[in-house]
Amino acid sequence: MSDSYDLVVIGAGSGGVRAARIAATYGAKVAIIEEYRVGGTCVIRGCVPKKLFVYASRYKDLFEIAPSFGWDVGTPSFDWATLVANKDKEIARLEAAYVAGLEKPGAEIIRDRATVTGPNSVKLRSGRELTAKTILIATGAHPFIPDIPGKELAITSNEAFHLAQLPHSILIEGGGFISVEFATIFSGLGVHTTIVYRGDRLLRGFDEDLRVGLEAGLVARGVKIIHQTNVLGLRQTGKDITVSFSDGVDAPFGAVMFATGRSPNTAGLGLDAAGVELAWDGAVVVDPYSRSSVPSIYAVGDVTNRAQLTPVAIREGHAFADTVFGDKPTAVDHSLIGEAVFAEPEVGTVGLPEHEAATHGDIDVYVTRFRPMINTLSLKSDRMMMKLITRPGGGEVLGVHILGPGAAEIIQMAAIPLGMKATKADFDRAMAMHPTAAEELVTFKKPSYVYRGGQKQ
Ligand SMILES: Cc1cc2nc3c(=O)[nH]c(=O)nc-3n(C[C@H](O)[C@H](O)[C@H](O)COP(=O)(O)OP(=O)(O)OC[C@H]3O[C@@H](n4cnc5c(N)ncnc54)[C@H](O)[C@@H]3O)c2cc1C
Ligand SMILES: NC(=O)c1ccc[n+]([C@@H]2O[C@H](COP(=O)([O-])OP(=O)(O)OC[C@H]3O[C@@H](n4cnc5c(N)ncnc54)[C@H](O)[C@@H]3O)[C@@H](O)[C@H]2O)c1
Question: Would the ipTM clear 0.90, i.e. be above it?
Answer without folding.
Answer: yes
